[in-house]
Design brief:
- 36% of the residues lie in helices and 18% in strands.
- It starts with a helix and ends with a strand.
- It is α/β, with parallel strands linked by helices and 193 residues long.
- The protein has one domain (3-191).
- It has five helices and six strands.
- It has a six-stranded mixed sheet, with helices on both faces.
């Protein structure tokens, strides 16, 4: 490896470190948001398959300027699916982490959690008319992901118990994906609609 190559690699590593937010970062790819979204969908596909649920294959990045959707995939029936990816994360906690307060984690009561998820889903529902590359016979999927430390599997399960998300006339399937859980050896997920 040449000295120029080593210098370029070191610069890329420094840039990634500088862009990294540090908080709730299990899924983070600081150097490339497109790869992050594809990776999140890949984690979901693996968890779905491990549980015998309908999954996705051939997950492809559409790329900036060709979105929405963020991704396309093939569903279990061989149909193209549009996938929009969005993150549930507390901005104030990111700021606190960057200011050196590494344990100022967001507090998530049920009301805050459900209102936040509802807002993300409604935002993505409103993007449906702007989808490019359709039609998508497999439907429109919204994938919400989070690595919020206080949103553990049992907490989320309790918060979602008996809750119905409504007013999402364009979203065919919405899923919440949590970061890796050593107890289940996968990323837990919750079907929202």
């Amino acid at each position: 490896m040449s000295p120029e190559d080593e210098h370029a690699i070191a610069e890329a590593m420094r840039a990634a470190r500088d862009r990294s937010r540090g908080y709730a970062s299990f899924f983070e790819w600081a150097t490339d948001r497109d790869l992050e979204e594809q990776s999140v969908a890949g984690h979901l596909a693996a968890s779905l398959a491990a549980n015998g649920a309908p999954s996705f294959s051939e997950i492809a990045i559409r790329g900036r300027g060709n979105d929405p959707p963020d991704l396309e995939a093939i569903d279990a029936n061989g149909n193209r699916v549009a996938i929009e990816v969005t993150e549930l994360v507390d901005g104030k906690s990111i700021q606190a982490f960057k200011a050196g307060r590494h344990y100022d984690w967001a507090e998530w009561d049920q009301v805050k959690f459900l209102e936040s998820i509802t807002g993300l889903l409604k935002e993505k529902n409103a993007r449906f008319p702007k989808l490019k590359g359709g039609p998508y016979a497999g439907g429109y999927v919204v994938l919400v992901f989070t690595d919020e430390p206080e949103l553990q599997r049992s907490t989320v399960e309790a918060y979602l118990s008996e809750h119905k998300f409504e007013g999402l006339n364009h979203v065919h399937r919405a899923i919440l994906l949590l970061s890796y859980d050593p107890a289940t050896r996968q990323c837990p997920y919750f079907e929202l609609i």
